[in-house]
């Protein structure tokens, strides 16, 4: 089973929420912290990311990097 994690480029995120809606395992949310542009960037708040990259694909600002690790 593949596992994944994301890295949000916080300064590019504008809190649109498209990635949160696109995540099939619901591990993303809008965070409480505020970036220098006045937006609350997305964060992965729990384990369970499957590395599908739906979040990154839906992000209009290319603010999400997805990393996938295959356990064997």
CATH architecture name = 2-Layer Sandwich
CATH-assigned fold name: Alpha-Beta Plaits
Quaternary organisation of the protein chains: single chain
What best-fitting shape do the alpha-carbon axes yield? elongated
Query: How can the largest sheet be summarized?
Result: 2 strands, antiparallel
Distance between the termini: 8 Å
Strand order of the largest sheet: 1-4
User: So how many helices?
Assistant: 2
Mean pLDDT: 94
Structurally, how many domains make up the residues? 1
Order of helices and strands: EHEEHE
Strand fraction band? Answer: 25-35%
State the share of residues found in helices, binned by percent.
Answer: 10-25%
In the CATH scheme, the class would be Alpha Beta
Rg calc: 12 Å
Which structural class do you get from the secondary structure elements?
alpha+beta
Given as residue ranges, the uncertain stretches (5+ residues, pLDDT < 50) are: none
Report the strand count: 4
Describe it.
The protein contains two helices and four strands. It has one domain: Alpha-Beta Plaits (2-Layer Sandwich), CATH 3.30.70. The strands form two sheets. The protein has a two-stranded antiparallel ribbon with strand order 1-4. It is an alpha+beta fold and 72 residues long. The model has no long low-confidence stretch (mean pLDDT 94).
């Amino acid at each position: 089973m593949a596992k994944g994690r994301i890295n949000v480029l916080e300064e590019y995120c504008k809190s649109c929420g498209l990635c949160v809606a696109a995540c099939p395992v619901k591990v993303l949310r809008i965070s409480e912290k505020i970036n220098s542009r006045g937006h609350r960037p997305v964060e992965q708040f729990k384990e369970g990311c499957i590395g599908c990259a739906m979040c990154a694909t839906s992000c209009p600002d290319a603010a999400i990097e997805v990393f996938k690790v295959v356990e064997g």
